[in-house]
Specification:
Blueprint: H1 6-19, E1 44-50, H2 55-71, E2 76-78, E3 87-93, H3 95-100, H4 105-115, E4 123-126, E5 129-132, E6 149-150, E7 158-159, H5 160-163, E8 164-170, E9 175-179, E10 182-191, H6 197-213, E11 219-224, H7 228-257, H8 260-283, H9 290-319, H10 324-348, H11 352-355, H12 358-383, H13 385-393, H14 406-421, H15 425-446, E12 459-465, H16 472-490, E13 495-503, E14 523-530, H17 537-551, E15 556-560, H18 564-569, E16 577-582, H19 586-600, E17 606-610, E18 617-624, H20 626-631, H21 636-647, E19 657-660, E20 665-672, H22 681-685, H23 698-701, E21 702-709, E22 714-716, E23 719-728, H24 733-746, E24 755-760, H25 762-791, H26 794-801, H27 803-817, H28 824-855, H29 858-888, H30 899-928, H31 950-953
Parallel strand pairs: 3-20
Antiparallel strand pairs: 1-10, 1-11, 2-10, 3-8, 4-5, 6-7, 9-10, 9-13, 12-14, 12-15, 13-14, 16-23, 16-24, 17-23, 18-21, 19-20, 22-23
Helix pairs in contact: 2-6, 7-8, 7-9, 7-29, 8-9, 8-12, 8-13, 9-10, 9-12, 9-29, 10-12, 10-25, 10-28, 12-25, 14-29, 15-27, 15-30, 25-26, 25-28, 26-28, 26-30, 27-28, 27-30, 28-29, 28-30, 29-30
GO cellular component, one term: plasma membrane
Keywords: Membrane, Transmembrane, Transmembrane helix
Transmembrane segments: 238-257, 262-281, 340-363, 369-393, 427-447, 772-791, 798-818, 824-845, 873-892, 904-927
Length: 955
């Protein structure tokens, strides 16, 4: 579905889902539909701590004292607070007292529903006064609930206080939040889809002091698990990489030209082009994000190409003995069109961004725009700013007056070597091309493939599952024990903060599971932030797995993505490997899923293999004897209502609100039985059911049987499915996908009615690589057509494009040598390096073709072009490599996220320089040796054209 109509889609689905409300059971909230994007993923947590307040009090404070301030922050969205239960007026019934007064729980519920109501008031006009007529339909105080009479059809009344205790308390506890092992409350902070993460978090931090002033004494707040640090660190890395890249680039220029002033001019173009690129991003509605920053960081190395070529060509014209002004003018004029063609070739590699769809398109576009804008500004500056600065700063030192330097001697030897290769150019080029294509094919098949590069983060998220049905109090004890083990394993001083949510959200907050979902009281989701990580994050996770498996074998662990980008790319999947076994028969789904799980456990690089659904949850099945119930004057509805009020609360079947407090906030009123009064099957069987009679009780009309049942059900449409999930350790996603497919195949033909679907990151991987391969192909075609239009020759365009296999070879080799996988970042680096390498090829071949048209000798022209363009090609290559070196080595915090991109470009540049300086002259000499020097122009006034007519020029 296209992004531009996503709003319409949500509106349509909301309209359709509203119709389904009539089919939902009583108490079920209406469906809540949101678009899955950055706005549904938290960017941090606002944590509330107190030594004097309970969790439930903190819940109320967070919801009504703090949350209104958050809503006022532009671009910020929040879910209700996590960790406490909402304030509720509890009517805690006593089953023994009910039996004494021959009452059922439903009679208590009906009495409250009739006596605490909200109704409008009218008006009475007496004389000249308009009187309002409010009533006390709504109770004013909590204590008044005890005075509500329960009608029994007799003169004497029984009051609520006679059969229940009234408490201004909280809803039944279904979940807690632990901050550093202590019960607390936090609010998940999210942003709207178009808002800037950095701006939202910055404005939130500014608002925190004001929020703190409006909180009760003894309550403190802090912002934790800040996802904006990744953007901030990326900006810091960009600045550091920019400074280092500029300095290294300047050193390269200084090394070759021995001109400090020329080096300074090249350095100055970098910050100006970057700043201008950022301004244009703003104009086009783009934000500073990881991908646009990657583009700017990559542009630092590429920007020097334009200014370096200009400065080098100025030096060449100085060497011809021209005056400064004339040398600068001629140098800029000579290379203006080739540089424009080079710019267009680099921009052409971004043409696929226009047609790319899905995740690759969304991620590639900011990078493409960042580099594109910076490159355009760099070209303009090379034709304006650089000449002006050269005239102002550079000195006209004639190179022929200087002594021969080391580079001149190297160039002479190289040209002699190249001339020697010309004798066997066909064999050498053919073998080189065959070898390159063979190695590229082999490496592409065998190199690891992922959607994103692995990142050594100082944060991790893990889902911990106790045996199904474990009470939430017991789960909390186990989680605290896990936290203790983590302190021992990782170092107590090294754990900056831990945040854990145990159990499920209160039913009042139906939207909360969108942000955090647990299957039941036996499950917990833990986030841990560390001050430092020694070594590899995957190794640390494996260490945690093994340690907890030894100490607490009853627990199941599953590590999940914590970074915002990874969560969005995974499209809701908690693990990279997710296999859905679907079919109409859920038992068959489960049987097949268990067989598949056994196969996955045999793969030594997979971790956390499990079926996450709760499939064997303990239950007490209550089987109603309808005939017996009817004989006693009951039906299933009477029994169900009494059961709900006893085992859960009446809020699900009879909604009732009380408005109170200083802020006049509406709170739920619910009839319930305290959990400590219902601790055995016998007590459950003695629940009274009939009005005005102590019999029958539940045990008279129903049997209670302990069973195992499904704790949760997953459906895709009407089709139920069971999920098998797994994490990876030191393995790439493509390998896992292949092995999963082999495991499925090894189980033989699928049983009838069973379907298998790979979910998780596997479909994203396929879509990403298909889109990127198409993008690379489109880029090559666009460049080929553009070169053909310029040179008026398919053969010359083909010669230039033969660098592409060698570029890909160099990129893949460096990725393999550095242990990087082929992923979204590195693939975009390959596409980028194709454009840059073609720029060098254009610089050489354009000169060679011009000389060939003058001399008619392709071999001599190729050698002369190599002689003239060798220094600028090597200079620009080394300058670009130097500029991207900080990115390629992963310099700075978070550098490993973009390092594959830099490595791919660096590897491609080195390989392309080899192919441009050695192989392209050989191929040019081979292909163009017998080509005509006559222009293919149809212009009769063009003297080089075969259609030239002198008579036309005299008209």
């Amino acid at each position: 579905m296209r992004v531009q109509i996503m709003g319409e889609a949500i509106a349509s689905i909301n309209a359709l889902s509203s119709r389904s409300q009539v089919f939902l059971p009583p108490g079920a909230p209406p469906p809540f539909i949101i678009r899955f994007d950055a706005s549904s993923q938290p960017v941090g947590q606002l944590v509330f701590r107190s030594d004097t307040k309970t969790n439930n009090e903190l819940q109320d404070i967070a919801n009504f004292n703090a949350r209104p301030f958050l809503i006022a922050i532009p671009g910020l969205t929040t879910a209700p607070p996590f960790g406490g239960s909402p304030r509720t007026i509890e009517i805690n019934i006593d089953p023994n007292r009910l039996r004494t007064h021959s009452l059922s729980p439903e009679q208590v519920v009906e009495a409250i529903s009739r006596q605490n109501i909200t109704s409008p008031s009218g008006n009475v006009y007496i004389n000249d006064i308009n009187y309002l007529t409010p009533t006390n339909n709504t109770l004013k105080t909590v204590e008044e609930f005890g005075d509500i009479p329960i009608f029994k059809g007799q003169v004497d009344n029984v009051y609520i206080r006679d059969v229940a205790t009234i408490k201004d308390g909280a809803d039944i506890t279904t979940g807690y939040a632990l901050i550093d092992g202590k019960r607390s409350v936090y609010i998940n902070i999210a942003k709207s889809g178009n808002a800037s993460t950095y701006d939202v978090v910055r404005n939130l931090k500014k608002a925190i002091p004001n929020i703190q002033r409006n909180l009760p004494e003894g309550v403190s707040i802090s912002y934790e698990f800040d996802q904006s640090v990744y953007v901030i660190n990326a900006v810091k890395s960009l600045v550091v990489e920019g400074v280092l890249g500029a300095l290294l680039t300047g050193l390269m220029v200084l090394l070759f030209l021995r001109d400090r002033r020329a080096a300074l001019i090249v350095i100055l173009t970098i910050p100006i082009s970057i700043i201008a690129g950022v301004l244009f991003l703003k104009l086009f509605g783009q934000t500073i994000n990881i991908m646009s920053l990657s583009g700017l960081a990559l542009a630092i190395g590429i920007l020097v190409d334009e200014s370096t070529v200009t400065v080098e060509n100025i030096h060449q014209h100085f060497a011809m003995g021209k005056s400064k002004a004339q040398a600068i003018w001629d140098a800029c004029k000579e290379i203006a069109f080739p540089k424009l063609l080079i710019l267009l070739c680099i921009l052409a590699v971004f043409a696929p961004a226009i047609v790319m769809t899905g995740i690759p398109g969304a991620l590639f576009m900011p990078l493409a725009l960042a580099i594109g804008f910076s490159m355009i500004i760099s070209f303009l500056m090379s034709q304006t700013f650089v000449p002006v600065m050269a005239n102002w700063l550079m000195k006209n030192k004639k190179e022929h007056e200087t002594k021969e330097n080391g580079f001149d001697r190297f160039k002479a030897r190289f040209l002699h070597f190249l001339n020697h290769l010309m004798q066997r150019k066909k064999v050498i080029f053919s073998l080189s091309m065959i070898a390159a294509l063979t190695v590229v094919s082999f490496m592409y098949i065998h190199i690891g493939k992922d959607v994103l590069p692995s990142v050594n983060s100082r944060q991790f998220q893990v889902r911990i599952t106790a045996p199904e049905g474990t009470r939430i109090e017991k789960t909390e004890q186990k989680i605290k024990a896990v936290l203790g083990e983590l302190d021992t394993l990782l170092g107590q001083d090294n754990v900056s903060i831990s945040s854990t949510f145990i159990g499920q959200h209160p039913s009042t907050f139906a939207v909360s599971p969108i942000y955090l979902y647990n299957a039941g009281p036996h499950e917990a989701l833990m986030q841990v932030a560390l001050r430092s990580v020694d070594g590899d994050t995957d190794a640390m996770k494996d260490k945690i797995r093994k340690h907890l498996q030894e100490r607490m074998p009853e627990l199941k662990l599953s590590f999940e993505p914590i970074e915002l980008t990874e969560k969005i790319l995974s499209q809701g999947a908690n693990t990279p490997v997710e296999i859905r076994v679907s079919g109409m028969m859920k038992k068959m789904n489960m049987m097949y899923a268990n067989k598949l799980l056994t196969k996955l456990k045999q793969l030594d690089y997979m971790r956390d293999q499990q079926i996450p659904q709760s499939m064997n949850y303990p239950a007490l099945e209550i089987h109603i004897d309808r005939t017996r119930a009817a004989q006693l004057g009951l039906d299933a509805q009477d029994i169900a209502k009494s059961l709900v009020a006893t085992t859960a609360s009446s809020r699900y079947t009879s909604k009732n609100m009380w408005v109170g407090g200083m802020m006049h906030i509406a709170y739920d009123v619910q009839v319930q039985m305290p959990q400590h009064l219902l601790t055995s099957e016998d007590e459950l069987a003695n629940i009274p059911l009939s009005k005005n009679s102590d019999r029958p009780v539940l045990g008279d009309v129903a049997t209670i049987t302990p069973v195992k049942t499904m704790g949760e059900s997953y459906n895709d449409g009407t089709m139920g499915y069971t999920t098998v999930t797994a994490n990876l350790h030191q393995a790439d996603l493509a390998r896992a996908k292949k092995d999963v497919e082999l495991a499925i195949a090894s189980l033989g033909e699928l049983p009838k009615g069973i379907n298998i679907k790979l979910a998780g990151m596997a479909p994203v991987l396929d879509d990403t690589f298909n889109s990127l391969l198409s993008g690379l192909l489109i880029a090559v075609i666009v460049i080929f057509l553009m070169l053909t239009a310029n040179f008026q020759s398919f053969k010359v365009s083909f010669v230039i494009l033969t660098t592409v296999p060698f570029v890909v070879l160099g990129s893949l080799l460096l990725l393999h040598l550095t242990g990087s996988t082929l992923n979204l970042q590195s693939f975009m680096g390959i596409i980028m390096s194709v454009g840059v390498s073609i720029a060098n090829a254009v610089l050489l071949i354009n000169n060679a073709e011009t000389l060939r048209l003058q001399t008619g000798d392709a071999t001599t022209s190729a050698l002369q072009a190599a002689n003239l363009r060798m220094r600028p090609i090597i200079m620009t290559t080394l300058a670009m490599v130097a500029g991207m070196l900080p990115m390629a080595i992963g310099f700075g915090e978070g550098g490993d996220q973009v390092s594959p991109l830099g490595r791919a470009v660096v590897g491609g540049l080195f390989a392309s320089t080899f192919s441009v300086l050695i192989l392209l002259p050989l191929l040019f000499s081979w292909i163009q040796q017998k080509s005509s020097i006559t222009s293919v122009s149809l212009d009769p006034e063009d003297e080089s054209s075969i259609h030239y007519s002198p008579s036309n020029t005299n008209l």
